[in-house]
User: Fold this.
Amino acid sequence: MTNLSTRLTKIVGDRTAQVLEKSFGVATINELLRHYPRRYVVRGELTDISTLVAEDEVTILAQIEAVKLRRANGKNILEVVVTDGSANLSLTFFNQAWREKDLKAGRVGLFAGKVGVFKGRRQLSHPDYQLIPDGEDVDAAVAEFAGKYLPVYPATAKLPSWKIMQCMRLALDTQDDLPDYLPTEIIQEFKYPTLKKAFTDIHQPPDLDSAENARTRLTFDEALLLQLLLGQRRIQISQLSTKSRTPNTPKLVAAFEKKLPFKYTAGQMVVNEQIEKDLSNKFPMHRLLQGEVGSGKTVVALRAMLSVVDSGGQAALLAPTEVLAQQHYRTITKLLGDLAMAGTLEGSEIGTAVELLTGSLSTAEKKVIHAKLASGQTGIVIGTHALISDGVEFDDLGLVVVDEQHRFGVEQRDALRMKAKQPPHLLVMTATPIPRTVAMTVFGDLDISTLKELPSGRAAITTHVIPVLEKPHYLDRAWQRVKEEVAKGFQVYIVAPRIENPNKKLTEREILAAQLLGEEFLDNEVMVAVEELAPELASGALAGLKIAVLHGKQSSEVKDQTMSAFAAGQIQVLVATTVIEVGVDVPNASMMVIMDADRFGVSQLHQLRGRVGRGSAPGLCLLVSGAPEDSPSMQRLSAVAATLDGFVLARIDLEQRKEGDVLGRSQSGGRSHLRLLKVLRDENLIDQARTVSVKLLQDDPELINLPDLKNEVEKLKEDESARFMDKS
Ligand code: ADP
Ligand code: MG
Assistant:
């Protein structure tokens, strides 16, 4: 007896099974049946030998006429002549004399390979073949083997598509009474084929409509299993118990709000309320806060942290980089003033201690902070991955805020949450707008809050593209604008893709050659580099201005000093890499020039320009690019210039990336249960699956009455990729 989990070694040869596993990670019947065709080719009759064209990939049905083994140039050459009645064709095998046993004159088989020409004669060298067993009805065998629509599989040289097709047939043959894990009502409601029919129709379609229906059903399955998994996870989270973090008297929150130099936006008030409600629950909050750069997420997060401190707990803010952690620390201590200085002379009585914990602290400094965290003296700690290190213990960690979640692995986030005695509340902040379907899939187990509007009084950002290839003089004008901006008392960022160019010594001729040779030399291509641009501007176009550089290779001390000096207005022009991409907040910066802008992704550009226009002065962003005016690169830049809507840009970005990237880096490498589902294309199916899963789980959260379906969800859960998708 076989079932879907039966290993392939039971039904195909060991060798084939080995190749399947090695090439595609396919080891069971189920995995094989989910190795879907990319497309189908319509097959008329099998190709006549007389019509073969050199270089074509063909499959022919023919009878062996003669077999000859000879030696030439120290090699055994097995030459097989076959005929299909229309003509002869020779097949050659080098050093595979053992095939002589199989390939006997008179036998009929299917032969597949690429048509080559040798000494003016067409031939197949090392063709794949399938001999039709003696005594079997040839017509029936061929009809079964070669239906009208031939699936084209992701294949390799060792395992060509038609061989995979054979394996499929073997696998399907074993699955006559394949049980369907989908409840009958759902199958009927959506008029889906059964699982058995779906597998059959996708691999051996009688017509293309059936193939399409099969594909839809199997795609729906993926969406549904994912939604069930996420739905169950949500239910599980709601069943965890933790401390409710409603303060008796929100002293800190009240004092903080009194200090705030502005009113919350309507959006911030809504989110504050959502979070307050979440924190009052006895199960952990699990919320994603998304909002444009500058939409005021940090303020919202800080309020939540203060609320937890008011209730007697501690809060930790995890930032992806040292620069960002420092930035948060500065912002937060500034907003809190004396409220952040508990334990010092200037400290307010109702305040708490706020600490910054990063890798660049000395061991002694870290120890002091560790002690204050363990005793509960520190209410709020901001840090990088140093927060996760072994020495860190909390007295009562009640809230974890993760900034820019996509830079953190789940493991890291979990490691921090493990430091709490009870599961802490979790708030994940992201400035990358997340399209709806991605939110429903990748982040489907999180509640989502969105800050749509920017705080009022914020001036708009204008973006222009500077096509230096066609209009080099525009660049001079750009530097002129930088000077004007500085003369008005504002500050300017200049962003470049490189720190320095590795191959400064290349001659112009070499660079040209590299460009002509194309892609593999792209890495060596010269791009605008911070360390080269800064001195050039300092002694040229921007002479006399206070210019500094900032990039990832600097020590964190230098970076911190530079950022502080820039924030204090002591630096007028900051030439930097994308280290300033996220979170950096200097309201007095009004202009940004992005060099080689086509080197950056759409969302990245949007993030970058969000650094300007944060004060009351209008922001100006110039995208400098040497790409030709009608190139796709230029079109992307124009799209960025045309809208400030992060959601529109996120979608453009998404369309240009591979699905694997959307669902997390980890998926692109390994196998995934999501083979068909595409978050952009399958919006309707995802909606449908969401609705169905909510209904199913409402009646039966454990899926006890649907054991087959439960089993499928369990399998997905176990799957490695599912673990990586866990954003909790
Ligand atoms: P984000 O974290 O979403 O990028 P921040 O919370 O850092 O945004 O806020 C960006 C800037 O706007 C900060 O200088 C902050 O003090 C300010 N800000 C936040 N909320 C408001 C508001 N409601 N009104 C005016 N300014 C605000
Ligand atoms: Mg921020």
Summary: The first strand starts at residue 39 and ends at 42. Residues 297-298, 583 surround magnesium ion (ligand 2) (CB under 6 Å). Residues 506-524, 658-671, 720-728 have pLDDT under 50 and may be disordered.
